[in-house]
Amino acid sequence: MNESDENQSRRTDTMMPLEQQRFGSPESARSTPPESARSTPPESARSTPPESARFTSPDMARAHSVMMQIRDRIRQDVMGRDDVIELVLVALFAGGHVLLEDYPGSGKTTLAKALGESIKIDASRTDLSDFRRLQFTPDLLPSDITGVMIFDPKSNQFHFRRGPLFAHVVLVDEINRTSPKVQAALLESMAESQVTVDNVSHQLDELFFVIATQNPLDSVGTYPLPVAQLDRFLFKIPMVHVSRSAELEVLEQWGQPRQIQTTDQVHRNDVITARQWIRSHITVTSSIHECLVDTARRIREDARVAQGVSTRSLVQAIPALQTLAVLRGRDYILPDDIQHLSGPLFSHRMTMVPGGGDPDIVVRDALQAPLDILVRSSLRR
Question: Which of 5, 91, 155, 229 has the CA that lies 20 to 30 A from 119?
Fold first, then answer.
């Protein structure tokens, strides 16, 4: 193939709709740079490289493109929350779930709805919704969210009526306002991607993603989640009020007709394929594993901590770090990625002794020495 034919082939691939572009096989698409390139990127790699040099394969470019389309679609409706949007995208593509600790009116419903609307499902899937919102209250029952068996007198049989959990994106508002029985039903769906009704398990969609919220101020009449259940969430994200300029922009655009750009939607299969590609192609070196394990051990040994982080948190950290790397246009993990995700990853999984202080400070202190070792080992390579 000469140079003109090659350029024509690249242009044709770029012009294809995203749904028609296929991710290559792991063998053909794998791009494994030298160990030194993965562990010790040059200083210029910490900034955004030129577009032509960012991706090591077309499949990586497509995975990144799926993320960017969803991010841009959410940013049309959610202003001043770029850091939260980034973490939500990381959780979505890492296969985790998110707990937002927010104030009323902070935009959590708008964010979750925009995320659901950015993912397109097949028209034939009448049993599945793109977005559902659940308001948890003390009188809620597990069957209200999982579904219920309905008797049909015509067929003289029971049929399963699906509950609101059968959706791509589910917003669980004020998760700590309902009884532990309902919380347990939700946590089963998060951990096993299924619901159980009358001793029969029903599988949820592979893309099932939960955004749960709780109010950090009002604790009257609540059922706080124990640490063992908080451990099911990949991230706990505290949401603060947006900046002055963002609030002014919200007021200026209030009341204007909202234009829904359906062309920005991505197909459900594209998200799942990108998720699978990221897990199998973004290399995680042993030094990254050692940094995570050493951080967890230092957290557990800290005198301010009554119960440290679990091994599950370390396992969940791997796809999160892989996703963040691709989201930022890289096929390798930087120490900065670990530092950026350590707070949302670990802080909510710890039990502090009375007067132990802020969990974020404990995580920061525990991460310092392992991160220094990781940086020095990378420099030696």
Answer: 229
